[in-house]
């Protein structure tokens, strides 16, 4: 059942993104920004962590999980280091994922040629 709920939750997040594209005519950049902010807001309201417990990978893989991670990192560092921690916390908790994306993108660019 864990796989089923992960699939359903991840699929619903994707449906929301597709609705933003098709109905509201948002660009991919606007849609991505909306999803990150949605993850941060639901994390701030305490709703995203129970969603992760319920949906597993269906909630941790999509882009809205990145927004939740930004919020969680900012709040952890705010408690530890005060107001400066809000800025440093978002970089500290998400740096591994961002660094991995940059490194893998670099290697992909080395080995694959875009059609042009």
- Which structural class is indicated by helix and strand composition? mainly alpha
- Counted by DSSP, the helix tally is 6
Radius of gyration: 16 Å
Distance between the termini: 44 Å
SSE string: HHHHHH
- Overall number of structural domains: 1
Mean pLDDT figure: 90
Low-confidence stretches: none
Tell me the β content: under 5%
Which shape, going by the Cα principal axes? globular
Tell me the major beta sheet. Answer: none
Q: How many E-type strands? A: 0
The percent range for helix content is: over 70%
Description:
- This protein is an all-alpha fold.
- The chain has one domain (2-111).
- The protein is 84% helix and 0% strand.
- The chain has helices at residues 2-22, 28-44, 48-55, 57-60, 63-81, 83-111.
- The longest helix has 29 residues, at 83-111.
- The mean pLDDT is 90.
- This is Stage V sporulation protein AE.
- Keywords: Membrane, Transmembrane, Transmembrane helix.
- The chain crosses the membrane at residues 6-24, 31-48, 83-112.
- It comes from Dehalobacterium formicoaceticum.
